[in-house]
Amino acid sequence: MSGVLHLDTGNVSSYITASVSNSHNDVVAFEMKFAKDMTIAQLKSKLEILTGGNAGTMKVELFKGDALLHLLDNNDAKLGYYADCDGLRLHVVDIFSSFAFDNESIEKFELSNDQYEKRTDSVRNFLKQNKLGKYNEEEMQQMEEKRRQQAEEIQKRASLCVVDSRCQVTVPGNPTRRGTIKYNGPLDGKTGVFIGVEYDEPLGKNNGSVAGKAYFECQPNYGGFVSPLSVEVGDFPPEEVDLDDEL
């Protein structure tokens, strides 16, 4: 996924707070501060220590909630180009490990939970010793409170997204779009509530269908599904384009 977010400015914090998750072990999402001016290569080196992955083969994905925003695949780019706000999640996938463990011809090395618990060189032991992630009670309570507040805000915003209402959609890395709400509810295979929007212009990704299931109907590339947090309901008439001023 390509594209970048807004650059950092002098009036904005030079750090972001993001949670970290890993698909290969028991590390739950925990929050840490990251400097916006660090390169993606430096970020991977830091995540290598935190997750036990390999910086040279890991893939880092940037999420907001359950929505994938970017694949951080440019090692020379600065983190601030991709992430300029808190509340994001860095998900680490080690490409090499994924390949190896998916290959049935390679014998898997497995440890019981008790054996893993006794190891001093494990990610779990590192987190315990440094009181990170789920082993930091205060941090976990703060995360739980943030989740609760976010869930309440999503529910509040979703209640305002009445079908056939006009709206404006703002998603990081995308232009602000106007349209009409056509769906409010869950999507098969996804968690949470999504708002289906028919945009005024072909700036969407679908025709109101996801994975072959139709939730509403519109022209191709005029439809999209977003978080209620990205939707502002109001009097947003279609934007007029003055063709006489175009070259």
From TrEMBL:
UniProt GO cellular component terms: cell cortex; cytosol; microtubule plus-end; nucleus
Cell compartments where the protein resides: Cytoplasm
Entry-linked SUPFAM superfamilies: Cap-Gly domain, Ubiquitin-like
InterPro entries given in the database record: CAP-Gly_dom_sf (IPR036859), CAP-Gly_domain (IPR000938), TBCB_Ubl (IPR045172), Ubiquitin-like_dom (IPR000626), Ubiquitin-like_domsf (IPR029071)
Sample GO molecular function, one term: microtubule plus-end binding
Any GO BP: cytoplasmic microtubule organization
Residue span(s) of domain CAP-Gly: 185-227
Chain ranges passing through the membrane: none
Superkingdom per UniProt: Eukaryota
The entry's keywords: Chaperone, Cytoplasm
Keyword Cytoplasm: yes
Cross-referenced Pfam families: CAP_GLY (PF01302), Ubiquitin_2 (PF14560)
CDD domains: Ubl_TBCB
Record bears the keyword Chaperone: yes
Family: Belongs to the TBCB family.
The protein's name: CG11242
Biological source species: Drosophila busckii (Fruit fly)
